[in-house]
Design a protein that fits this description.
Oligomer: heterodimer
Number of helices of chain A: 12
Largest interface: A-B, 29 and 29 residues
Radius of gyration of chain A: 18 Å
Low-confidence stretches of chain A: none
Shape of chain A: globular
Distance between the termini of chain A: 47 Å
Order of helices and strands of chain A: EHEHEEEHHHHHHEEHEEEEEEEHHH
Strand order of the largest sheet of chain A: 4-5-10-6-7
Largest sheet of chain A: 5 strands, antiparallel
Helix content of chain A: 25-40%
Largest sheet of chain B: 5 strands, mixed
Number of strands of chain A: 14
Mean pLDDT of chain A: 96
Radius of gyration of chain B: 15 Å
Order of helices and strands of chain B: EEHEEEHHHH
Strand order of the largest sheet of chain B: 2-1-5-3-4
Number of strands of chain B: 5
Strand content of chain B: 15-25%
Number of helices of chain B: 5
Structural class of chain B: alpha+beta
Helix content of chain B: 25-40%
Amino acid sequence: MIPASFDYVRAGSADEAVAALAQHGDDAKLLAGGMSLIPLMKLRLATPGVLVDVGRISDLSYVRDGGDHVAIGALTRHRDVETSELLREQCGVLRAVAAQVGDNQVRHRGTLGGSVSHGDPASDLPAALLALDATFVVRGGGGERTVAASDFFRGFLETALGPDELLTEIRVPKTGASGFSYQKFNRRAQDWAIVGAVAVRNGTTRVALVNMGTTPLRASAVEQALASGASPTDASEHAAEATEPTADLNASPEYRAHLARVLTRRALEEAGS
Amino acid sequence: MRVSMTVNGQVQDHDVEPRTLLVQFLREDSHLTGTKIGCDTSSCGACTVLLDGESVKSCTMFAAQADGANVTTIEGLADGDQLHPVQQAFHENHGLQCGFCTAGMVMATVSLLDENPTPTEHDVRYGLEGNLCRCTGYHNIVQAVLAAAGSDR
């Protein structure tokens, strides 16, 4: 399968990428690792006229101690998240979730910022960042701004990023040795989650769901139940509330709702909530 | 556009369309057909090559993204008649049946053992989850990888 023709522009820096986006407008699309975009282009579900390759902007690939948070460059590859010693100490859940993305080859290419910017509700990492209350740093023609994870995912493959904006950094809180769990349910190795549940304890327990609607979702009803003293078993009964799971080859909405409750219970138990 | 990279120690410099996939660049422009196209959707791993030493699926990457890089394909592993230790281990353990997945399996194994030289059986199965064998010959493939790592004893 061959993608439709496009013009290729390689950006050497974040500013160059933003300038290229401004120049080419709606016709341009950013290419990072390409693990989501290239398959869509091969199926011709995406036919951008211009690809702006940001994959070589090496100064956007890092995991750093940011004081009260850990700062991760948007072009940090899943493999580097999965093996980061700083994240092992300070935010283990992100490491654990990164290790479950795709397969080795995909993790060698795919980037954290690419996964977030793509905004696929079936992706593992966006839900983890939602549970972590991460902050995203975005650069555009008008300068830099930050967006809370809770405001970022707007709809199916739709985010708060403007057409001339590039995600540059992801900031996650230091959760130290707090408990966490990612329960990913799929039928085949390396596959997307049919449903996934992330639980992170950081003072209170936060829970986010993969593939239970058009965006990654916080399981707010579960969090409220836990905060009111409910047991993990009782709280997890609320996991499918305010979700809109779809039907596909793998699962009906009813089955997804069932999976959300079971996986949330397991995640809460493993996280020690 | 001009795309130039080092493949198995030799410069491959070709004029290609930006949409040219790395696997096409290798097979059609560089005439290195050891790398196979299987599913063409980055699921099966038959097209796995090493990009600067790390396994990647060459069907889901543009050649332009590898411009300037060092690429190793299955043709680049053996030293003359001397098989690479991973190839030798696949040979000795009958780690292949029809052979279509083998180039990708071997390249993914080289990368896996580089990152984890002493894998357990679980590490091998998890590390090779991006490579499918339609003959379902996984048992001997896993044995071959463990043998190559010297951890079968």
